Amino acid sequence: MKFIIVTGLSGAGKSEAMKALEDIGFYCVDNLPPTLISKFAEICYQSKGAIEKIALGIDIRGRSFFNDLNDSLEMLEKFGYEYEILFLDCSDNILVKRYKMTRRNHPLASNTDIVEGIKKEREILKELKERSNNIINTSNMKPRDLKEEINKSYTSGDTKSNLIISVTSFGFKHGIPMDADLVFDVRFLPNPYYIEELREKTGEEEIVREYVMKSDVSIQFFEKLIDMVNFLIPQYIKEGKNHLVIAIGCTGGRHRSVTISNLLYDFLKEKNYSVLKKHRDHTLR
To answer: Any known ligand binding at 14?
Structure first.
């Protein structure tokens, strides 16, 4: 089990870090009172694999509860529960700018003295920072940069596992899928609809696939589609996208779009991407 305690300076990006961890499959609980950490860990470890990745967000908002954190961590060690601490740091001047921008006051600031609040918090968190396994300084990071750093640190180097690709065939006469990120129009490919013995079949059948792909144009198109997909997917992964919908459309969504969607799905599976397939309109008339 992966058990991470996410903490750090207020305004350093804990909320963004928790969102990033949730996106890669962590069960996230924010601002749990430290006195409950050991009990929560016990429940998770007894779940027999139902929960495999947990992230707990702990910060100074707990005030008096926060003083119990060291005791709770010692309890985890006593019971043999393994954990990591992710500490988010940031320079004072950047933190001040962030608070000024959001027009919020620091939780430890008195009389709106943000600098004094940051100083107090650094002192309180000093020991916790020293025992942290991973310290990320977000001073020069945008949210997308922090997400990329989280992905890099907690996905065991498998960046493909974060992206789910859905390949959807559809018919333009039934409308373009609303959730499509990429839309490819294959109405220029040979149309089995005009072949009487193929008209009532679908692109799921080999005879239809062979008819569509016997054209040089079809072969060239699919090669160029693969080239584009090979280029685009790593860019989406780098951007931090978690779900990509590729929609392939022909007139009715029955023959050509199904054929190309199946070929693309097979290709992506061979590349070890997490990929889903849906033929939206192939049974419609």
So the answer is: yes
Alpha-carbon radius of gyration of the chain = 26
Q: Is 60 annotated as a binding residue?
A: yes
Structure tokens at 226: 């693969």
232 a known binding residue?
no
In this predicted structure, which of 65-69, 126-130, 200-204, 257-261 has the lowest mean pLDDT?
A: 65-69
| Structure confidence by residue, pLDDT tens digits, 46-94 | 877 677 889 999 887 655 556 678 788 888 888 888 889 999 999 999 9
Q: How many helices (H) and strands (E) does the chain have?
A: 10, 9
13 is in an annotated binding site: yes
Ligand-binding annotation for 12, yes or no, is yes
Identity at 139, one-letter amino acid code: S
For the entire predicted model, the pTM comes to 0.60
> From the CB of residue 46, how many other CB atoms can be counted at a distance below 10 Å?
9
Residue with tokens 């010692």: 74
Identify the structural domains of the chain with CATH numbers, from first to last.
Answer: 2-157 (3.40.50.300), 160-279 (no CATH)
Q: Are 11 and 121 in contact (CB under 8 A)?
A: no
For the cut 80, the answer to whether the pLDDT of residue 112 exceeds it is no
85 is in an annotated binding site: no
* 171 known member of a binding site: no
